[in-house]
Write a structure and sequence with these properties.
CATH topology: Alpha-D-Glucose-1,6-Bisphosphate, Chain A, domain 4
Shape: globular
Organism: Nocardioides albidus
Number of strands: 7
Protein name: SRPBCC family protein
Radius of gyration: 14 Å
InterPro entries: Polyketide_cyclase/dehydratase, START-like_dom_sf
CATH class: Alpha Beta
Distance between the termini: 36 Å
Number of helices: 2
CATH architecture: 2-Layer Sandwich
Strand content: 35-45%
Largest sheet: 7 strands, antiparallel
Order of helices and strands: EHEEEEEEH
Helix content: 10-25%
Structural class: alpha+beta
CATH superfamily: START domain
Strand order of the largest sheet: 1-7-6-5-4-3-2
Length: 136
């Protein structure tokens, strides 16, 4: 299985970032590759910009650890195995780091997933109305 990881440091408190990440049904609001999303605490559906649909089960939504994990379980893409993990870590100075990891199979899907996740993570600060730390 191919493992991917993107991260960003934000000048945003971890609890504020987590409030966005934990809202699983609204991922399309901040994830540019997604045209729409819907769901609840256990399951969500995302529709990509090209109209492809992905059904996902929410595996973990841990408010204490600020960790979200989800697994692709159906839809239009030929995903054999998938686990996405988003961790929001508190840097204790009003900043946070977001680490978004993906395990995906088959490997030929990895470049598309990597590009989409990297774009979403890079844009998260802008969505939150803040510039990522270290950028101007």
């Amino acid at each position: 299985m191919t493992t991917l990881r993107s991260h960003t440091i934000l000048d945003v408190p971890a609890d504020d970032v987590w409030a966005v990440i934990r809202d699983v049904a609204s991922i399309a609001d901040w994830f540019p590759a997604m045209a729409s999303s819907s769901g609840d605490e256990r399951r969500r559906t995302v529709v990509l910009g090209d109209g492809s649909r992905i059904e996902e089960d929410i595996v973990t939504r841990d408010d204490t650890r600020r960790r979200l994990q989800y697994r692709a379980v159906g839809g239009d893409l030929p995903v054999a195995a998938h686990l996405g993990t988003v961790d929001v870590l508190d840097l204790e100075d009003g900043r946070s780091v977001v680490v978004y990891s993906t395990e995906i199979e088959p490997a030929d899907l990895a470049p598309a997933f990597d590009g989409a996740v990297s774009e979403a993570v890079a844009g998260l600060g802008g969505f939150l109305g803040r510039t990522p730390a270290g950028q101007s």
